[in-house]
Amino acid sequence: MKKLEEAVRQFREERDWEQFHSPKNLVMALMVECAELAEHFQWLTQSQSRNLSPEKKEMIKEEIGDVLIYLVNLSEKLGIDPLEAAWEKLGKNSKKYPADQARGKSWKYHEYE
Amino acid sequence: MKKLEEAVRQFREERDWEQFHSPKNLVMALMVECAELAEHFQWLTQSQSRNLSPEKKEMIKEEIGDVLIYLVNLSEKLGIDPLEAAWEKLGKNSKKYPADQARGKSWKYHEYE
Amino acid sequence: MKKLEEAVRQFREERDWEQFHSPKNLVMALMVECAELAEHFQWLTQSQSRNLSPEKKEMIKEEIGDVLIYLVNLSEKLGIDPLEAAWEKLGKNSKKYPADQARGKSWKYHEYE
Amino acid sequence: MKKLEEAVRQFREERDWEQFHSPKNLVMALMVECAELAEHFQWLTQSQSRNLSPEKKEMIKEEIGDVLIYLVNLSEKLGIDPLEAAWEKLGKNSKKYPADQARGKSWKYHEYE
């Protein structure tokens, strides 16, 4: 991950894209890439989304790469370590959704029962 | 990253959330988390987005954590390695935007010159 | 629709929010509102999304209101008539997806058959 | 607006797309269309976004059309009147952000002052 962060910064600097890569612009680009990823799933049933063709998976892998590149780019600009951020959030979520109580139901889903 | 992937899978299994975590649902949740991240930036000027308060950065760090958690969760479900995906995409982008030609201009930006 | 456009402009002017409401900021806000709308659906099955409770529909109605307000606000700033834009696009789509050929299948869906 | 709603329903029925057009899928498609709209703005400065070329405006108009089509399609499926929803929300916002207090500052923006 650190290596990727370094490569992304170098990629940006070699192209002198600093001027375009404000955190505000990067977060917009991140949303756009997420949407390109989502586009592959929008008309699929749940089960189709669990059984993708190899060709489709290749295309999705590219979009996942784009999303991670922009997330790392944004994080690097903000001086935030995305892995550290994920670990901290996972810890909070463990407290928020205790395994014994959360089993088999999502709170959000639960509203609909 | 592998450790995070393992932790995310364990988190999901302990709560038996497999049934909700179809790739389709996870990609929707990923977009929603990205939007919560973007919400912190929507009214900011470019320069404000480059100079965030520590309090604001803490909140943004949490959202970055959420985005990475869902991205890793989705990737794990699809059997895609997000770091590998990012490295491959970065390689393609290097060819697509040669440093010497791309210097100081974004193609998308360029349209507006 | 024209009345709504006029009310949205007046709302903005009375609050002197012109300075924040650049098209760039408005489109970010539009995406964020769409995500708040999507959040209500992310863990639902297709059939649950077709059978929402009245309480849930009330909450969704509010988000739909927000999305339309920002879309009208953005369009008004750009001097674009959203209804005219929709009619023109619907005409293009009719040519792109002739009813007789498109019946019972979405192109995007079709990839997965 | 009513006419557009009717045309969107007819468009859907003529193609028998009912099966794909669950509210869940439509809200995903709505987000994807919003992102395609946002893509035109992501690298722009605020002032560039206020001074778009006619060519760019034409492309943006198409995306605005797509967003409204999906918003109307979703609303129609849910039996929600989007204009009524917008008017109700605008009324709530007027109370939430009284013109005399809100003048010249956005609450969200205010955090950064």
SSE topology sketch:
Four copies of one chain form a homotetramer.
Chain A lengths: L1 H13 L8 H17 L6 H5 L3 H25 L3 H15 L2 H4 L4 H4 L3
Helix pairs in contact in A: 1-4, 2-4
Structural commentary:
- The radius of gyration of chain A is 18 Å and the shape is globular.
- In chain A, helix 1 (2-14) crosses helix 4 and helix 2 packs antiparallel against helix 4 (54-78).
- Chain A has helices at residues 2-14, 23-39, 46-50, 54-78, 82-96, 99-102, 107-110.
- By secondary structure, the first copy, chain A, is mostly helical.
- Residues 109-113 of chain A have low confidence and may be disordered.
- Chains A and D meet through helix 2 of A and helix 2 of D.
Amino- and carboxy-terminal Cα gap of chain A: 40 Å
Report the sheet with the most strands of chain A, covering strand number, pairing sense and barrel closure: none
In the CATH scheme, what's the topology name of chain A? Helix Hairpins
Q: How are helices and strands ordered from N to C of chain A? A: HHHHHHH
Low-confidence stretches of chain A: 109-113
* CATH architectural category of chain A: Orthogonal Bundle
Strand share of the residues of chain A? under 5%
Overall average residue pLDDT of chain A? 92
Q: Supply the helix-strand structural class of chain A.
A: mainly alpha
Q: What is the total number of structural domains of chain A?
A: 1
Radius of gyration of chain A, whole Å: 18 Å
What oligomeric state best describes the polypeptide chains here? homotetramer
Briefly, what CATH class of chain A? Answer: Mainly Alpha
Q: Tell me the CATH superfamily of chain A.
A: MazG-like
Number of strands of chain A: 0
Number of helices of chain A: 7
Largest interface, by Cβ-Cβ below 8 angstroms: which chains and how many residues each? A-B, 67 and 67 residues
Categorize the overall geometry of chain A.
globular
